[in-house]
Amino acid sequence: MISFFANPARFMAHSAWAMPTFAVAAAALFAIGLPWGLLYSPADYQQGETVRIMYVHVPAAWWSLGIYAFMGGASFVGLVWRHALADVAARAAAPIGATFAGLCLLTGSLWGAPTWGTWWEWDGRLTSMLVLFVIYLGYLALWGAIEDEEKAARLAAILCLAGLANLPIVHYSVEWWSTLHQSASVLRSGGSSIHPDMLGPLLTMAGAYAALFAALTLMNMRAAIFRRRVEAARLRGAS
Amino acid sequence: MIEGGWGYIWAAYALTAAGLGVLAVAVALRQRHWAQRARDLDKAGRE
Fold it and tell me: Residue A222's closest CA among A4, A29, A8, A5?
C-alpha cells in the first residue's frame, strides 16, 4: 500500500476520485451530526444543555491527536524509506491538525466557562493540549523557514517524531494528574460509559471530522504535487 | 444541573463552523490555484 502510492502519477489518479468522495461524505455527516448534536440529543443530568459542546469539542480533540500520529507515521516512512509522498502527506496534514487542535482549545474553553467556572486552567490535559498545538505551529513554521525542501522535510520529520512523546501525555494526563478535565468516557479500557443517545451524534461528528481531514489532506497533497511540477518546469526554463 | 448556557453552545458551534469553513475554502482555493498553473504549463508545453 505504502509503495503503491510512491508513484505521484498513480496517487493523482486515485486521489482525483477519493478527494470528492471524502468531501461529500464529510458534508453528509456534518449535515446529520450538527443538528443531531445541537438540537436533538438529550441534555446531560449534570451539565445540562452545555454537554452539546462535546459534539464539536471531542472529535476535534480526538483527531488532532490522530492526525499528529498520522504525521508521525508519514515522517517515519519519509525518513527511513525516502518515500516520495510521505513528507508531502505529513506536511499536508499539519494545517488541518493545527486547526483541529486550535478549535479543541477554543471550544474547550467555551465548555469550561459554564461548567468549571473558568475559561482556562493550567492542568495536565489543557496544558499538554496547548503544547500539541504549539508543536503543530512549530512544525509548520519549520517547513516555512527552510528553503531547501529536502532539508526542511528531514528536520520537520525529526521534530514531528520527537513531538510524538506528547501524545500519551495528552491521553493519560487525566489519569496521571488530578485535573479539572473529566476522564475518558469513550476511548477507555472497559468500554464506553456514554449513553447511546449521545454516542450516536458524537461518532457521527467524529466521522465527519475524519472525512473532512481525508478530503483536505488529499487536496493539500495534490496542490503540493502541482506546485512541484510548476516549479520544476520554471527551473528547467531558467537553466 | 447547570441551567442555560446556550450562548456558550452557539459560540462553540459558530466558531467550529467558521474555523472549518475558512480552512476548507483556503485549502480548496490553494489546490485550484496550483492545478490551474499546472494546466497552463501543460497547455504552453503543447503549443
Answer: A8
Asked if this assembly's ipTM is beyond 0.90, the reply is yes
A189 φ, ψ (degrees, to nearest 5)? -70, 140
Backbone angles phi, psi at A201, to 5 degrees: -65, -30
- Per the domain annotation, does A72 fall within a domain? yes
User: Distance, in angstroms, between B40 CA and closest chain A CA?
Assistant: 9
Domain boundaries, position A121: 20-238
Using one digit for the tens of pLDDT, what is the confidence trace for A15-64?
A: 999 999 999 999 999 999 999 999 999 999 889 999 999 999 999 999 99
Q: For the beta carbon of residue A31, count every other beta carbon within 10 angstroms.
A: 12
**Cα–Cα distance measured from residue A93 to residue B8, given in angstroms and rounded to the nearest whole number:** 29
The CATH number that applies at residue A84 is: 1.20.120
Mutation site, B10, B33, B34, interface A, largest A CB count within 10 A: B34
CB contact under 8 A, A216 and B35: no
What is the value of pTM for the model shown?
0.94
